Structures are given as structure tokens and as C-alpha cells.
Amino acid sequence: MTDSVLPRASRLASLALCSLMLGACTLGPDYQRPTIATPVQFKQAEGWRQANPSDALARGAWWELYGDRQLDALVLRLNRSNQTVAQYEAQYRQAQALVRSTRGALFPTVDLSAGKTRSSQGTGSSGSSLSQSSSGIRDTYNTQLGVSWEADIWGKLRRGLEADRASAQASLADLAAMRLSLQSELVQNYLQLRVIDEQKRLLEATVQAYQRSLDLTQNQYRAGISGKDAVFLAQTQLKTTQADLIDLVWQRAQLENAIAVLIGMAPAEFSLAASTEIPALPAIPLAVPSQLLERRPDIAAAERSMMAANAEIGVAKTAYYPDLTLSLAGGYSSSSFSNWVSLPNRFWSVGPQLAMTLFDGGQRAAEVDRSEAAYDQTVAQYRQTVLDGFREVEDYMSQLKVFDEEALVRNEALQAARESLRLTSNQYKAGLIGYLDVVNVQATALSNERSVLTLMQSRLVASVQLIAALGGGWQEPAQ
């Protein structure tokens, strides 16, 4: 290497070192979580116990609180086969790939090229012969190795990587939020289906009882003890209850079909056998409000989107400053293939390049304003998501509290209705009262039975909604 090349290489190394030192500068604001008014506790938290990490349950497997193995298996199938979850998982993988691509821009780009060109230059004489023009054709063989690197002096690439990382984390949180929403939907459908199974058993037993009442009334009519009107009343009551029983069939079918789609199956390929038990209502401890912010995936997604928008401000501000690109190229060029790669045919080039926009009609300023406004929008969305989270928890806590109080009263009413029905039926069989009195008491007893089951269904659904509003349980949030 000649002495003239050494100073140039030294100057190039010094320039690269200076660029690396300047690279510590990063434009744009560093992210800070905006202030939010977080309550000390939930308004409806009186009577609830504070949440504690539970080692008895797998972290996040909140559906296991209902103690139903079939439900556990269905949720696992949803996690594996639900197509909406698959869509969000693919979106997250796209976001991860974008992060890797953006990170790659921080490193030099190395290119290798090799080729042959055939060129000709005219002699300038219009009357030249074909052989003369052909003699001007020249073949050139080239091979070149090039290295190019953009020095991230102002932090444009790093801010872009920061934005893409935050967007990828937001995509992961979106995936978790969608999975939690679908899990909640499946568990609600399953619990409602089990209550319908119990309602069907109730109506089937009631139909049998009403059939016996009709037979008894017909016998009494034949014996002249009761009138024809009692027979018609008994028939009306029986047929109405049979119609209610038929109505439950399509309701159950709808829930069964919804569960099939949630686990990624066609409804025709899925069936759920009736069960003799309704899952018990679990005891639900609550998290403190500050933990709610860390656990709910939709709140996490909103904050990650805010972080990405904050980084985009820095990217927009770097447009005011020049871009520095360092490039190095070297190779061989020859008109003959035989001695193409040889020392006399070598060439090289090295040097920095600065590029800067001097005038753009206000485009850069407008982009900075746009990115700042976009950040303000994500801040408002984040704060609204937090408020919605607190509201949902308060709503479901209040609902469950009211349902618990209502359940006590309805169970008392049910016991009184059952006792009244027993006494009235005995009086009718003894001929002391007419059948109209029995019909009224039977209708009241059946209404109370169904009301208790409907209330149980509402309590189970509300418990699922509360768990989902708490972010899917009260275990320590996964990192």
C-alpha cells in the first residue's frame, strides 16, 4: 500500500470515529408515562378481599376457577385453533419481522456485483462501412464489492427502531386482549349452555308433573268431581310448558354452534353432551387499581401505541438535519476476461456523503406537527382506556353484589312457592279446592324455579365479565 493511501485511510477512520461519537445524540422526547388519576380502591370493593398471587393455578388460567374439566379442554382448543387468534398472532409475527428489519438498518450494507457490458462508440462518419463500425465495439468485465453505512448521528434509525419495538409490543398486547376476549366469550357461552341444560331438566320434570295433573283432572272430570274447564286449564298449562321446553332447544343449539366456531370447528362437526351439574360460582378476589393498569392487555396495548407515537416525533425532527453516509467500494475492471482479476485492473473508492433538504415548503414542520398531534391522540386514547377499565370493574362488581342480594331473596321465595305447591296439590287431591287454584300455584312455583336459574346464569356471566375486566385473573402479571 502506498504512502498516499495511508493518510486517506487514517482520515476515513477518524471520520468514522467522529460519526460514532456523534451518534450518541438522539433527537425527540424520551417517553414518560402520562399522569393518570388512579383511585386508591374500587368504590364497590367493600366486602371483597384483596388479590394475592395464587400458585394453585397456572398463571392466566382463570377459567380453571369454575372447576369444569370440559371447559378447561375447550379453552385450550380455542388457544390453539381459533382463527381470530391466529390472525392476531400473524400480525404480531409481522411486527417482530419489522423490528428485525429496522434493526438491520443500523449496520453496514455490503453489496457484491459482477457483470459484463458491451459498448460501442460511433466514428462520426456517416459513410463508414459495417466493418469499421463493428471495430468500435468493446467488452468490459467488472466485479465490485461495496460497503455503505448510514451514520445515525441524530438518532433517526434508533428512534425508528424504538417505535417499531413499541408497535410490536402493542401488537402482542392486542393478541393477548383478543385471546382474553374470546376466552371470556367461550366461557360465558359454556356456562349459559349448562344453565340451559338445567332448565331443560326442570321443564322436563315439570311436563311430567303437569301430565300427571292432566290425567288426574280427566279422571275427576269423568267421575263428575271437576268440570270441563279444569281439563282445559290442565291442557293449556301442559302445552305451554312443552312449548317452552322446545324453545330451549334452539337456544342451546346457538350456544353450541358459537362454541364450535370459537374452537375453530364447523358446527356440524361439534356437539356437547348435556351435563348434570352447573359449575359453581367462584370466589373472586380483586386487584388494587394500580395492578389493573399492569394486567389488562388493552391498557398495555394503548400504552405501547403511545410509546411508538412518542418515538415517531423524534424521527420527524431528524429530517431537519443532514444524513451522513459512508461508502467504500473496490473491485476489478478489464476489457479482457483472461486477465480480468489482476492487480493492474483493480480500482477503489471511498468517501462520505452528506445529504440535506434545504427547502421543502414546510413539509418537515408539518410532519413534526402531525406526529405530535398523533402522540396527543394516543395519550387521550390511553387515558380513556384506563377510565373504561375502571368503569367496567365497578359495573361488574356492583352487578355481582346486587345479584348476590337478589339470590338470597329469590331462594326464599322459591322455598315458599314449593311449600305452597305441595299444600295446594294435597288440597286439590282431597277435593277441597278447584283446579284453578292449583294452576296458579304451579305457575308461580315454575316461575320462581326458572327465575332462580336465570339469576344463576346472570351471576356466572357477570363473574366471567369481572374476571376479564380485571385482565384475566389476579395472579402476578407475566412479564
From TrEMBL:
Signal peptide: 1-24
Entry coiled-coil feature ranges: 71-98
One Pfam family, short name: OEP
Compositional bias (Low complexity): 119-136
Gene Ontology cellular-component annotations: cell outer membrane
Keywords: Cell outer membrane, Coiled coil, Lipoprotein, Membrane, Palmitate, Signal, Transmembrane, Transmembrane beta strand
Protein name from the UniProt record: RND transporter
Species the sequence originates in: Pseudomonas rhizosphaerae
